[in-house]
Specification:
Low-confidence stretches: none
CATH topology: Rossmann fold
Distance between the termini: 28 Å
Number of strands: 9
Strand content: 15-25%
CATH class: Alpha Beta
CATH superfamily: NAD(P)-binding Rossmann-like Domain
Radius of gyration: 15 Å
Largest sheet: 6 strands, parallel
Number of helices: 5
Shape: globular
CATH architecture: 3-Layer(aba) Sandwich
């Protein structure tokens, strides 16, 4: 059985470390990490059975504005609306984006189990809606997520709406926090 962990918003590799320590102690899962902040790419050199992509996950393939936090990129986002941190909203960087729903559709042909982790600083709402619309959400076994509705101006009603849709589709959801790993 081929297993895949897709790590979206990988930060400094903390999600890979947490996943391997708590879930994949035998290194059975292939891990693919997406992190748009190029400052963090140096943290991914020494993981086994792993691929790193310096890309933002989004709803289309191409390029997107990426707003770096002025404190060494911590909490950066493709969401200009993000209210927390100190995003440099006047000088976004262009970063390559990948349509996550299409990526998952392709991966599901190769893997029997896919666990998806999203910590993408507010972009999770548009990405998840795209996954629901395309049916890619049905290709994942589990969603591990850090929600950011209160940081990007998503109403509690809209947050609850996507959560209810995911529950209706029987998506297994787990709150995710890898800080400290």
């Amino acid at each position: 059985m081929k297993k895949l962990f897709i790590d979206c918003g990988g930060h400094d590799g903390c999600s890979v470390r947490k996943f391997r320590k708590e879930i994949d102690t035998n290194c059975e899962y292939h891990i693919i990490s997406f992190e748009a902040n190029k400052e963090y790419s140096k943290f991914y050199d020494n993981f086994d059975n792993h691929q790193f992509y310096n890309k933002a996950v989004w709803v289309y393939d191409g390029h997107i504005d990426f707003y770096l936090d002025q404190k060494k990129g911590y909490g950066s986002s493709v969401m200009k609306e993000k209210r927390t941190g100190k995003l440099d909203k006047e000088n976004p960087e262009k970063t390559e984006s990948i349509r996550l729903s299409s990526f998952i559709e392709r991966a599901s042909c190769e893997y029997d189990e896919i666990i998806l982790k999203l910590d993408i600083e507010g972009a999770e709402y548009e990405v998840l809606q795209d996954m629901v619309n395309t049916g890619a959400i049905n290709k994942i076994s589990k969603l591990m997520i850090e929600w950011h509705y209160n940081k990007v101006g998503v109403s509690k009603e809209d947050h609850d709406s996507i959560n209810n849709e995911l529950k209706r589709l029987n998506v297994e959801i787990e709150e995710w926090d890898a800080i400290g790993y």
